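Please, structure for the following, as tokens.
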Amino acid sequence: MTELKTWHYLENQFENATKNSFKRANILGEDHLAKLAAEQSDPDIAFLFERFQPVQILFVERYTGWLKIKGVYKGWTQRMEEIQDKLSSDKIAEWDNKIKAEVGEDSAEHTTLLPNGREPFQTGGRDARILEVKGLSKRLEDFPALAAVKADVDTFVAQMDSIRNNQQQKEDLVEKTSDALEKMRKAMCNMMYGNLGRLMDKYMNGPLVIDRFFELQLIRETGKDEEEVEPILPAEPPV
């Protein structure tokens, strides 16, 4: 059985065209507002401008806030990657060498402190590696001669914890702001769809002029992934 397609006039082309890109929605909304503003001397167009402007302004506010927190999150993710790389390359080698110098490379004490060698500190997920460092700190409590190593391990894992916590908090915030922005995108697209209907009624005898109120190229060009078109703002410095 052939599935019947929806009459295309009943589809919101503005929502369809911007579904995967807040950036495209922002450009489309700004363009529509500017074109309405340019013809406000017409009372019918002034009405469309006045009802669309508040929705577009709120979308822009949420969009710029989303871009900021997205950039902050990316910054904390980079910091997490950098300290993870430092653990894998420098710190575990430094701690291991100092442990070997104190207790011997093939000793039972070395096995107690690093039962699986350096590998758990160099592979696996972020949280797993943090747990490995915390475990090493705990095991070092029984080795007073390695107190300086333990102090360095404790300082390093505190830094890792702080960065990881900040990263996860910003990740949650990105998700929440994305949900709020998506609702506003749909609201703005619905208003443009409503404006299109009024313009179709106003210009029913010459509908081709309606295209001057919208950026049709953006409506036609869909399919780009949001991550390919969204800029990332500089992250805030760590606290």
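DSSP finds nine helices and no strands in the chain. Residues 225-239 have pLDDT under 50 and may be disordered.
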